Amino acid sequence: MSWFPPSATAVLALALVGSRTVFWADRGGASDALLLEVVMVILAAGAGFALDDPAEPTIEASPIPRADRWSLRVGIAALAWGSSWVTALIVAAHWSGPLPVSDLTVEAVGWMGLALSAASIAGGPAASPTLLVAFVARPLLPDDLDLLGMPGSPEWAAIRLHWLVVIVCTVAVFVFSGRDPARRRWTIGT
Amino acid sequence: MESPPRVVRSLAIVEGKLLLRHPAMIAGVALSLLIAWRVAVIPGGELDLRRYSIEVVLFVVPLGWTAMIAANSAALRARRHGVTELFDSLPTLPASRTLGHVLAAVVVAPVALAFVVGEIVVSIAVASTTHGSVVPAEFASAAFIAVGGAVVGVAVARWLPHPIFVLAAIAATVAIELALADSPVISPVRWLAFWIASLGAGLAEFDVRPSVWHLVWLAAATTIMGVVAVARNGMNRSLAAVAVAAFVVAGLSGFVQTRSIPHEQAGELARLLTEPEEHQTCERDSAVTFCAYPEHADRMVQWRQVVGAVLAKVPGEQPHLLVSERVPTRASTSACGQQPYPDTLPAEIGDRLEGVDLWPVDGAVHPSVFEDSMPCGGTRLDGLFTAVQTGAWAVGLPPTPADEDDRCVADGQARSAIALWLGVQAVRTGPDHLRRVVSNTPVDSDGRLHFSAVDQSGSGPWAWSDPPQWGVRWHRDDVSAALALATVPVTEVGELLAEHWAELRTPSTSTGRLLELADLDASDRSLPAGGSAGAACP
Questions:
Q1: What's the ipTM?
Q2: Residue A135's closest chain B neighbor by CA?
Q3: Is pLDDT of A189 > 50?
Q4: Which residues of A touch B (CB under 8 A)?
């Protein structure tokens, strides 16, 4: 597995969180929340490359199922993602005070799920555009599907539920895409 | 040795077609359309065409980002398919391939322009009224933003050949934009950003925009990024010449854009606020004189309507009333927060207003230069703020805040409830509008509506961006009394006012007395006795 994407995104994300005190010191809570969401998206984009395997065509015929190979890759990527996320939270806590860690982590996992499900369908490079489109389109969702809000706000309970649904859906997509080609009853293309 | 120009041209044509068909581009167009449909087009609303020519460009930004991704993906195709060495062995030079990708980016321009023009046409078609005129030099920047995005995608692919870096490039563009254009201080440096919002100062004159020079700046910056992309494969004489020319043009346009507003022009603009009577157009009738800045002259129709409806319910002879437009004490920030009005102006103009009282106590009604609406450009309130100002004037309360935002208190006074009722009954669905305002406004420890942006996050329901310009800090019970009064037929309340006018407009008459006269139950209202903490209204 290439460590380059998760490392690069971790550096970028931590640079963003760290630069807040330098460039965004006079901004309020909404800007801080946006900054943390950008960090989530960047880290998720890095994790999306975990499934890219140049040897995939060669080892497709090996007896180890793709689901096992992907699970291993995602597990390793999750460790890298988790350490970057925890570091980002520690840095962010310095300028924002106590953070709703579990709520923020639910959202962060949701973004990673989106990245991995996109990557499972069309490869690691598909993760970034998918995340970007989702990030920009999020405010356009109807109120009962809202994914936009700050932890602690009155709407957050519903938003967290929506993020949990996103996580479940992305896991389903991931599992579906992770089936071995030989086990599929139908395929797209040749 | 260089590849012949026709090779580059052929590559550009092929890559251009591929770029337009790239899934990221299609997603970008769809996303921009979706945003425009959900956010921009307001059927039946008023449309300021000058302002809209600026704002419509913002909807192209997602297209610019996805163009960046698509162009990056195209430029990394050989690497992704593992044919880099094969390409190196072909007669076409890598620099020519890169130039082909850079030139292919131009195909994004017509897409962006078609989008903004279509958006403007649709918005004009669905708007009830339009003001001003479309400014092509403003919306044309959409083309440069989209093409620039694609060229940056190619440059990033050449220098940092991994798809993850395109995300960093997008983050960098956002950071540059925020750092330059979203500063709390209105500085000329903001013109070095990609897109510059119109100033939220309420009057178009203050928004001094070097639009054409900004287009030149964007074109030069895009060319520089193209040179950076091609230079990855080495510099030659013609590329160096293009680079020098682009840097010279960028330097020149950057310098011209970031010049301060000339001394005389800043002084003239400041006089719009210090001597409004010299710059406003007025209409006078027997009872009222209406004055507005020329660009808002059509608002006088609404003022005439609501002020007339208020005065029609006021018993007895009234002195001549002046209704003149004035800037508010506080106005919206770009993030829908609240700031002192002078901070919304370019620094050169703001400096000239230091120590000047823009809000003298003159007893006149002063509609704001911003339309009466809920925070952050929310629901229009059909002149409710102006109507309540007029009601306050009619009962002898200060219509507008004084100094920087001084508002007096008149808790539990019948005239407070009457002022609010006069305003509410003058506006279509007035009670609903007032309820909407109250539900969005926190109440302080004394029970008065407080229009500050108390939610420090700026995202809560209580963040008033353009607070009502009322001279009184209304008590919530007086508001409730006015709403209760609004349930009584207007003619009955009118008769009641006519009969007891002298008594009811006296500060010592309580709201309870008013409700008693109107046969309304005051027992469940904890009406204040009046005169609690805060500067009492005269």
A1: 0.76
A2: B62
A3: no
A4: 4-5, 8-9, 12, 16, 23, 26, 28-31, 33, 38, 42, 45-46, 49, 54, 124-125, 128-129, 131-133, 136-137, 140, 150, 153
